[in-house]
């Protein structure tokens, strides 16, 4: 890693100190870039081009408290408006960056403005993946990525009796849990044989399935959606048809089927893209003046020992901080252990580190009592943890993982003795 810092520092060594830094995107990563730049003493021109009307905010509450009507823009802001003003950022909002001219070092926007940059950060996140147009004929299908979408979806949920959730991943399951909290019936349609199949082993999928079924959700697994149409006798409702001919009716549908990273700007400018914008440990692309971070960036993960594009709150914040420092010439490698959480009903589930979907997990506690910590141990050290209502265990495990501390399975799995 020290070598990587030296290589990256050398690549940037010939460049003048930046006078103008432009950030494309106005989400959590962009917000942390501008905050950190000012904290680190950058006194030059700072332009943030963002296509949403809101100043940077955090998205995790969108599928939880915002959807339930318990939080709004003031609760989810990353920076209070006064503090943002104090950062002295030219926020071009709402405006959309439409091209990057790397030779002239100019970003152009939809509204016809342009700005010359010394360094550029692409923090464009992604958009909710859309269902194929070939199977959708109804307009009663919603997606959830932005605050405005969450507010509209919450209002619609509260007027509904049944919602159809397409996709049994994290967003879909959180929407179903919030629907149930609001007293709305929910059906989840998942094409795979288990929920969250791409991120957790089968035991956790079973736990989540049981959690939702106990809370009254109708979960359909191995369910291939072949069409989503207006209901034949009530055009204000929807009907889903599955491959086996089953039909499911609801007031409306929400699709949570993944994220498409916003990479087209970078791609059109010739910046390397491979499941996200390709960056190094410092958020730098091959162009020494262009950086990327957050959901849109594909980076080498020191912990996972492979390249990865993470979609998580912690990554959006911490990778952005590392990137901002590198923009100013301080190269501190991004080496955080990947961390993600989800809240559903009375369950807080956190995932830390490397959890292969076929991992054999050592169990501490009792999954059926909704309080357990599951460890993926390799060569006597913890590689990954899943904590179910056991944030304290996760905190200790994180420390041990960072220390590379040797552990024994008997201690880990003995829930009668606190981890210390
Ligand atoms: C509903 C929901 C719930 C979540 N829950 C959790 C959770 O519980 N735990 C967790 O760890 N993570 C969660 N996440 C993930 C986390 O919120 C994201 O990883 C994080 O928001 C990524 O931040 P970002 O800044 O990289 O991207 P984004 O937040 O997507 O921000 C990018 C911004 O750039 C804008 N933009 C894109 N292209 C342009 C352009 N050309 N010009 C101008 N602006 C542009 C976009 O519109 C957007 O506003 C959740 C995400 C969602 C959507």
User: In which order are the strands of the major sheet placed?
Assistant: 3-2-1-7-19
Low-confidence stretches: none
- Name the beta content range: 25-35%
How many domains make up the 3D coordinates?
A: 3
Q: Main β-sheet: number of strands, strand sense, barrel status? A: 5 strands, parallel
Which class of secondary structure composition applies to the elements?
alpha/beta
Ligands present: flavin-adenine dinucleotide
Average residue pLDDT: 97
Range of helix content = 25-40%
Description:
The chain is an alpha/beta fold and 420 residues long. It folds into 3 domains: 2-127 and 259-327, FAD/NAD(P)-binding domain; 133-255, FAD/NAD(P)-binding domain (3-Layer(bba) Sandwich); 346-413, FAD/NAD-linked reductase, C-terminal dimerisation domain (Enolase-like, domain 1, 2-Layer Sandwich), CATH 3.30.390. It is built from 11 helices and 26 strands. The protein has helices at 2-13, 28-39, 73-76, 81-86, 147-158, 170-181, 202-214, 264-268, 313-327, 391-403, 409-413; strands at residues 20-24, 45-49, 90-92, 97-101, 106-109, 114-116, 119-122, 126-128, 141-142, 162-166, 185-189, 218-220, 225-231, 234-242, 247-250, 252-255, 259-261, 277-278, 290-292, 297-301, 306-308, 339-344, 347-353, 362-366, 371-378, 381-388. The strands form 7 sheets. The chain has a 5-stranded parallel β-sheet with strand order 3-2-1-7-19, covered by helices on one side. It is globular. It starts with a helix and ends in a 7-residue tail after the last helix. The model has no long low-confidence stretch (mean pLDDT 97). Bound molecules: flavin-adenine dinucleotide (FAD).
């Amino acid at each position: 890693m020290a070598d990587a810092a030296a290589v990256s520092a050398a690549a940037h060594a010939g460049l003048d100190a930046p006078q103008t830094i432009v950030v494309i995107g106005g989400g959590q990563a962009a917000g942390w870039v501008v905050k950190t730049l000012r904290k680190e003493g950058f006194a030059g021109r700072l332009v943030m081009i963002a296509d949403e009307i809101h100043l940077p905010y955090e998205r995790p509450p969108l599928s939880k408290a915002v959807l339930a009507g318990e939080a709004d823009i003031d609760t989810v802001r990353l920076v209070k408006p006064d503090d943002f003003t104090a950062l002295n950022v030219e926020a071009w909002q709402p405006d959309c960056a439409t091209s990057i001219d790397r030779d002239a070092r100019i970003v152009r926007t939809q509204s016809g403005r342009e700005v010359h940059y010394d360094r550029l950060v692409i923090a464009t996140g992604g958009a909710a993946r859309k269902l194929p147009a070939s199977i959708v004929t109804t307009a009663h299908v919603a997606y959830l990525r932005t605050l405005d979408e969450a507010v509209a979806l919450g209002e619609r949920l509260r007027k509904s009796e049944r919602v159809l959730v397409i996709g049994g991943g994290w967003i879909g399951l959180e929407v179903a849990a919030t629907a149930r909290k609001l007293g709305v019936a929910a059906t989840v349609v998942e094409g795979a044989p288990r929920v969250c199949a791409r991120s957790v082993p089968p035991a956790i999928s079973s736990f989540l399935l049981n959690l939702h079924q106990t809370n009254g959700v109708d979960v359909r697994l191995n369910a291939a959606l072949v069409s989503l149409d207006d209901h034949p006798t009530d055009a204000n409702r929807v009907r889903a048809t599955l491959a086996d001919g089953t039909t499911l009716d609801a007031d409306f549908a929400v699709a949570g089927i993944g994220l498409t990273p916003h990479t087209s700007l970078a791609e059109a400018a010739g910046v390397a893209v491979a499941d996200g914008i390709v960056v190094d440990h410092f958020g730098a692309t091959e162009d020494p003046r262009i950086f990327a971070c957050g959901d849109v960036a594909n980076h080498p993960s020191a912990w996972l020992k492979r390249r990865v594009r993470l979609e998580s709150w912690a990554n959006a914040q911490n990778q952005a901080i590392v990137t901002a420092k590198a923009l100013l010439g301080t190269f501190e490698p991004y080496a955080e252990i990947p961390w993600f959480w989800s809240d559903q009903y009375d369950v807080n589930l956190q995932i830390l580190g490397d959890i292969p979907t076929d991992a054999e997990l050592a169990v501490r506690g009792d999954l059926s009592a909704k309080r357990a910590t599951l460890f993926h141990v390799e060569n006597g050290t913890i590689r990954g943890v899943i904590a179910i209502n056991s944030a304290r265990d996760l905190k200790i495990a994180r420390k041990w993982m960072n220390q590379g501390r040797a552990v024994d399975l008997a201690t880990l799995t003995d829930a009668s003795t606190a981890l210390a």
